[in-house]
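Response to reviewer comment R2.3. The reviewers asked that we include at least one raw input/output pair. We reproduce the pair for histidine kinase here without editing.
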Amino acid sequence: MSEPKPRRSFWFSRSTIQAQTETLLIGGGIWLIMIIFQMSYHLSASSNPWKGNNNINALCLLWSLFRIAPPEPLWSKGLLKQIFASFAISLPLYLLYIVSMYLLLSPGTSTQNAAEFYFLLLLSAVLSLFYLLFFTGIACLFHFWNRLRQRSLHWTLIHAHVVILIFVSAIASVFYVLSIQQRAGLTFDFVLLSGFFFFLIFFSIFVFIILLLMMPLFIVFAYIVTRPTIKRITELVAVTNRLRIGHYEVRAPVAGKDEVAQLQKNFNAMADKIEQIIRDLQTERDYVALLLNERRELFANVSHELRTPIAILRGYLESDLKNRPQIAEALLWEDIETMEREVLQLQERADELFALSKAEVKPIVFQAVPCDVYQLVQTLMKSCAPLAWRTNKVEMVADMPDEIPRVSADEQRLEQALKNIIRNALRHTPPGGVIALIVTIEPERVGISVEDTGEGIAPEELEHIWERFYQAKTPQQGGAGIGLSLVKEWITGMGGSVAAASTLGEGSCFTLYLPRLR
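Raw output as returned:
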């Protein structure tokens, strides 16, 4: 969304050509109105109250200077160009003055009087230049004042106070001048506009002198009055600048109950929220960096674990194919069993990676149905016990009551979770060891434990074993650190929980708790 354009100021905002065009139209319009009025009253130049009066042109020049956009920088050749351009525009105005006063109203003017009038024209042009320089100084002062109040809120508030005081002073001056006019018995014929501009110039000079004397007092008074509010806003600006460069702990001091205090409170609330968001983002960044590091380690471990079985398989196949006529049948079957173990290890890694990729692509939807734990344990014993004895010489036993209440679970995921734990137990249990499937019944849940007589897990590592990509430092280190994290994710997704206990050198016990059906 584009930002709205700032509103264009009325004063000090037009080009030199635009301002001079406006000046010509205004001055020409005033002189045209005066000619129409005075010709309608059949006035001649000798009886004209505007004879020798150049106040209209002076006011038109003032209008031009207050409408021209000052150059940047202010004191440059551009300012001189504007002064000379304004002086040049005063000449057509005085030409209108001559035409209206002496050519249209008094066509029979003598040559001597005409010479006097041309001398008066030259004198008026010189006075015009003096007015121009004087008004240019006033315009530059106003421009400097505007730049001050545009750059500082303090000067803006001072400006507002000074404008109010100027307005009050101007009103008082009007009544004062009117009282002088009444005491002097002066009258103004506004139909003929006689004396109007004289009154306007007199009033402007009077107000200017009053303001020149009172302005310093006005500014000091406004400065003192606005200082407390500006100090609070300045403190808030300093705090926002510190927040912008990264000091998120800074807060603005809250004082009072006005709008500034509400702004300070809102800023502090916003800063609290930003600080919390930054802290959360930093935590997430650290977590993502940790995951990326763990993933790199995972890829390194998986590539190593895949290369090793593949190298063994290739070695056995090349050896058996090369020595096929001389190899004994018993030795051939032994090689086939070894290759089967390596293939099973490859399948484990592939299954873990496949499950991980599915979990990361989209959330797993669990089909929670009543599940027969007794039948599930029997199925696991039939499929895993013979293989455990044949490949690892590890005995598997089951210990469970005859009557087991049903649980709410996704039967396929529950079976896969138990197989993951059994594979871990087989990896870390030496030949001659035992793996037991134990079912315990509690009032609100049913626990299925896989207990082994393996090497165990150190206490400081036990709390991390459910984390993704974490691998305990054991003599039989293997796997990719995925299986147990998936087990926890699946079981908690079914509304259950997991637990682990281990004694280093004696074995480990992993338990899955599932909600019991009534």
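The CA atoms of residues 392 and 431 lie 6 Å apart. The chain has twelve helices and seven strands. Further pairs are available on request from the corresponding author.
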